[in-house]
Amino acid sequence: MKQENTDHVFYRSQVKVLPEIDYGKGIYFYDTLGRRYIDGTSGALISNLGHGDVRIAEAYFEQAKKVEFVHGTQFSSRGVKETAEFISDFAPGDLNRVYFVSGGSEAIETAIKLARGYHLSQGNVQKHKIISRWQSYHGATLGALSCGGRSGDRHPYTPLLLNFPHIVPCYCYRCPFGLNPKQCNLECAWDLERVILQENPDHISAFMAEPIVGATLGAVPAHDQYFKIIRKICDQYNVLLIADEVMTSLGRTGRWFGMEHYDAVPDLLVGSKGVGAGYYPTGFVVAKENIFQSFKKGPGKFSHGFTYQGNPLMGAVCLKVLTIIKEEGLVQHVHELGTYLMTRLEELKQNHPIIGDCRGKGLMTGIEFVKNRETKEPFNESVNLNKRLVDEAFSRRLILYPGSSGGMINGKGGNAIMVAPPFIITKDQLDELLSILDGTITTIEKQVMA
Question: Do 345 and 417 contact (CB within 8 A), yes or no?
């Protein structure tokens, strides 16, 4: 008999019945029926320190006993100041002014407005458009969705979206220009200059991109030289560079920030997810000093805000999270285990013909599946491969992160999953995860290749 939701929650899926969570501990979840699951994706690349960390809960509790909330225009707090200092100390280059919000989409909206406000302060009143990339994801609010390049998410709301232009992605496995990434001239990066000129440089405020594209492409890193060229183009046309590091910031890639892999410093860097590690909803934008000074010397304020931004509970939790990551050397741990994980994924690739590509950095990895490895032909959308893989893994008590169905290849088709466990995972636990993943792929492979 088919199950149905009988409670009063408006779920994302109105037809799927979810098991009820009881508690989490370390890299594991436990539901109310006592079943244990490996959290193979840190929730949504957010629970970087795993689950049930008493130290963070105590930091929350101790702050809540003192004061739970103040409005951000009336008071600051020690935790907020020290969290901003921590982020500033580890951020690339001269990024050193941190604006806190409540999540990733809010942070993207904030970066869009900061870019506009900066150009207004410089007298560039026409600069308002944000260029971003197809096959990207920047959030679900309307401004963020306007920047995003995930076609399936955009189509229902197209009449509501801003007229923001897009360029091709940096997707070496499926180069939009059909070039070899070892010999190409990075046409995907120079596409930015083409669109800036086509749209009129006087109208372009910023370019936004993820250092490693998350779920939309399944952990696709940029070419090593990509952001150096992007930085050069942005400087030439007075366009701000916004790095969307909602997923990649604060250790996920084996460096404190994903942009460190590319030796290019953005003007604005957006972070979220891992800064609160799931224990408090937080987002932030860290800006270069000259952008901060443009507001200070100009209007004297940034007319933008959210109720819960920068509150004392947030500060206490985030400071504890970041302190644990630093003191326990978890960024280096992620780098080391990430190297091991990629080696093991390449071994899986040799054993499974439906694996076309394995990629990523640190503990942010992706696997792309194909019907034919030589031609890179994807499976037909009717096969519903992403869902089958994720559902099979779930039945084996492993949680995987599905790539966006129907959005990888020119907005249609393609299949990928992400493997991105918490920073605290051990090598033995990673081996357990990979064993289940191997069995999952074996089962689905037999079904779809029969």
Answer: no
* pTM confidence score: 0.97
Averaged pLDDT score across all residues of the chain? 96
- CATH class, domain 21-53+329-448, is alpha beta
CA atoms within 13 A on the CB side of 116: 15
What topology is assigned to 57-327 in CATH?
Aspartate Aminotransferase; domain 2 (3.40.640)
Question: Six-digit token pair at 137?
Answer: 């994801």
239: left (phi over 0), alpha (psi -120 to 50) or beta: beta
Q: State residue 4's pLDDT score.
A: 80
Start-end ranges of CATH 3.90.1150.10 in the chain?
21-53+329-448
Closest to 37 in 3D by CA, of 322, 332, 47: 47
Task: Report residue 66 CA to chain centroid gap.
Answer: 33
312-327 vs 78-90: helix crossing angle, rounded to 10: 40
Alpha-carbon span 284 to 246, nearest angstrom: 9
> Residues 209-241: pLDDT tens digits?
999 999 899 999 999 999 999 999 999 999 999
Query: What SS3 class is residue 109?
Result: helix
Report yes or no: 91 and 274 within 8 Å, Cβ to Cβ: no
Tens of pLDDT, residue by residue over 103-162, are 999 999 999 999 999 999 999 999 999 999 999 999 999 999 999 999 989 999 999 999
Residues of the chain within CATH 3.40.640.10 domain(s) are: 57-327
What is d(CA 368, CA 335) in angstroms, rounded to the nearest whole number? 22
State the Cα–Cα distance between residues 141 and 164, nearest whole angstrom. Answer: 14
